[in-house]
């Protein structure tokens, strides 16, 4: 039994990494890596890139502040500092084991501030529902404003029904396979959570209390501001980074929103920070945007594809590095707070 559990834990770490590495290898197998470093060191506008990173920090801060709001009605008072640090650490942890951050941040508040694990986990469920609604709104706006482009994306990647039926090979096969894996894993996670919540009536009741806590949140307008602000900042974090490169600096905001939505759904595939699926989604949407310029002879297809694949890699690498740095800071600060609390208690 213990060996089976150990095997499951190993697979939870190895499989996401293996999937991400396989997709990245497939995409970048012919890449000249000297071009990557040339882009980073000489061609990229670091001013725009650093500016975009501000909007990579704000969503995590907003998420922590929103979390405290939902915990307060249940009598759970978490400190602002430990809440923010726990969010930083949870995002970094999810790079190693996808989705583990949700559990880790709840256990961190339990350890640091004595917050009920079950109640905090219940509020995380509430957060996910709210996030899904906001993301659905963003997707609706993107579809209404960029519907022809979205249809073109589906056909190009082979995920439209006709493409799947007539040509189930190559890129279409890979994308469809990824989507299938995502569905299976998502269902597995939901089933696992359901089993976990069934272990005790008390746990279920506390989780329910966390979900219903939204009804008693003080200053609902502030909760809604945080919820919308999280995703607006995510979008700006994504979109402003493209101003760092000459090729993508002219992409309009609404097309950038479409790219953001496609990239966000790609991250649902359980690889470290969406590595692989995210690169593919962003690269494809960039290529589609410049399709007319390629057909008119203004840009070469090979040039656009090479630049798109490089831009996706640079942006994802830098944004992932930010998550790692914030996680390291959060971990160090939590340890500092813990030592300080121990000194005060003594």
Automatic annotation (TrEMBL):
Domain of life: Bacteria
Record keyword Cell membrane present: yes
Membrane topology: Multi-pass membrane protein
Keywords: Cell membrane, Membrane, Transmembrane, Transmembrane helix
Location(s) in or outside the cell: Cell membrane
Primary location recorded for the protein, binned into one broad class: membrane
Pfam families, A to Z: LPG_synthase_TM
Gene Ontology CC, one term: plasma membrane
TM ranges: 9-28, 48-65, 129-151, 171-192, 220-243, 249-268, 280-300, 306-332
NCBIfam families named among the record's database cross-references: flippase-like domain
Protein name per its UniProtKB record: UPF0104 family protein
Source species: Pseudoprevotella muciniphila
């Amino acid at each position: 039994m213990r060996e089976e559990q150990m095997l499951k834990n190993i697979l939870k770490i190895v499989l996401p990494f293996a999937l991400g590495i396989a997709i990245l290898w497939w995409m970048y197998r012919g890449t000249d890596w000297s071009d990557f470093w040339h882009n980073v060191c000489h061609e990229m506008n670091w001013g725009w890139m650093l500016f975009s990173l501000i909007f990579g920090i704000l969503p995590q801060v907003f998420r922590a502040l929103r979390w405290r709001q939902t915990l307060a009605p249940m009598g759970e008072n978490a400190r602002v500092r430990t809440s923010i640090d726990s969010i930083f650490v949870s995002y970094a942890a999810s790079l190693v084991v996808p989705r583990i951050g949700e559990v880790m941040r709840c256990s961190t508040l339990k350890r640091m501030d004595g917050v009920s694990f079950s109640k905090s986990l219940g509020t995380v469920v509430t957060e996910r529902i709210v996030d899904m609604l906001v993301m659905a709104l963003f997707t609706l706006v993107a579809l209404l404003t960029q519907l022809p482009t979205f249809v073109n994306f589906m056909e190009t990647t082979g995920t439209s029904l006709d493409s799947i039926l007539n040509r189930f090979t190559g890129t279409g096969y890979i994308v469809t396979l990824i989507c299938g894996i995502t569905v299976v894993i998502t269902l597995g996670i939901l089933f696992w959570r359901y089993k976990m919540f069934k272990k005790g009536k008390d746990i279920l009741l506390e989780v329910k209390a966390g979900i219903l806590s939204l009804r008693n949140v003080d200053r609902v307008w502030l909760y809604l501001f945080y919820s919308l602000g999280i995703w607006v900042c995510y979008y700006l974090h994504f979109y402003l980074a493209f101003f760092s490169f000459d090729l993508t600096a002219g992409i309009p905001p609404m097309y950038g929103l479409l790219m953001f939505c496609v990239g966000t759904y790609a991250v649902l595939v359980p690889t470290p920070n969406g590595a692989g699926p995210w690169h593919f989604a962003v690269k494809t949407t960039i290529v589609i945007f410049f399709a007319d310029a390629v057909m008119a002879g203004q840009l070469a297809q090979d040039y656009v594809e090479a630049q798109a694949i490089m831009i996706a890699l640079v942006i994802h690498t830098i944004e992932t590095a930010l998550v790692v740095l914030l996680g390291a800071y959060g971990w160090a600060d939590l340890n500092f707070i813990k030592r300080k609390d121990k000194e005060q208690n003594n």
